[in-house]
Design a protein that fits this description.
Elements lengths: L1 H22 L12 E11 L5 E2 L5 E5 L2 E7 L14 E7 L1 E7 L5 E9 L2 E9 L4 E8 L5 E7 L3
Antiparallel strand pairs: 1-2, 1-3, 1-10, 3-4, 4-5, 6-7, 7-8, 8-9, 9-10
Length: 153
């Protein structure tokens, strides 16, 4: 008798969980997770140098599974072959993308990519007010951060 009651309670609990999962996307408060966005970068914050405002035209664009990056780079290289030279200018596929909800309603996106022999890890934070923070961590060079604004079309 106890076994029957336990199995009934378990099936009711599973049925209740299934209904709440199917109702979750219909909730108007849930935000869609961005897979395609463009960030116009207006400020660069190197690790060992002072921050600088940038001219218009620098951007980071994520299109589903690819990255189009056009950013200036200032920092120390740890190998004889400099990373990206003076600029990070490439269009490459994205590997191992992770996306999660951040603090204060932000979306945090972390992924890796490689341009030839240089490998990078990007950490992008999209804020609800349209601001964006971009951290670029080259494997063989110093980390650099950027501030920008998400472009709405």
């Amino acid at each position: 008798m106890r076994m029957i009651i336990r199995s009934l309670l378990l099936s009711l609990a599973l049925l209740g969980c299934a209904e709440t999962v199917s109702a979750a996307p219909k909730d108007p408060k849930t935000k869609p997770t961005p897979t395609t966005f463009k960030i116009d970068v207006h400020r660069m914050i190197p690790m060992a140098y002072r921050s600088r405002s940038l001219d218009p035209g620098y951007s980071v664009e994520v299109r589903n599974d690819s990255l189009i990056c056009y950013l200036p780079y200032v920092g120390q290289n740890y190998t004889a072959n400099p990373v990206g030279g003076v600029q990070l200018d490439f269009a490459v596929p994205i590997h191992s993308r992770e996306q999660r909800e951040g603090r204060k309603g932000s979306q945090v996106i972390r992924f890796r990519c490689a341009d030839g022999a240089a490998a990078y890890e990007f950490l992008i934070t999209l804020w609800p007010n349209g601001r964006a923070d971009v951290d670029v961590m080259p494997v063989t060079a110093q980390r650099i951060s950027y501030d920008g604004k998400v472009v709405t079309e």
